[in-house]
Design goal:
Layout lengths: L5 E4 L3 H10 L9 E3 L2 E7 L5 E6 L1
Parallel strand pairs: 1-4
Antiparallel strand pairs: 2-3, 3-4
Length: 55
């Protein structure tokens, strides 16, 4: 069974990524363009997949 990410939509992914990174949040990678959206996965210490999305 595959775990599906919980997605949170944000208006400005780049600024949110930098803000959270400064607070010590770890990410799987830098934000990426996926067609018309930008996404980034947060490295949750409990194994949950949390994704930030900008449309």
């Amino acid at each position: 069974m595959q775990i599906k990410p919980t997605s949170f939509f944000v208006p400005h992914l780049a600024s949110e990524f930098l803000r959270l990174k400064e607070l010590g949040v770890e990410f799987h990678s830098n934000p990426k363009a996926m067609g018309p959206v930008f996404i980034v996965l947060i490295n949750d210490t409990c194994g949950n997949l949390i994704q930030l999305v900008q449309q």
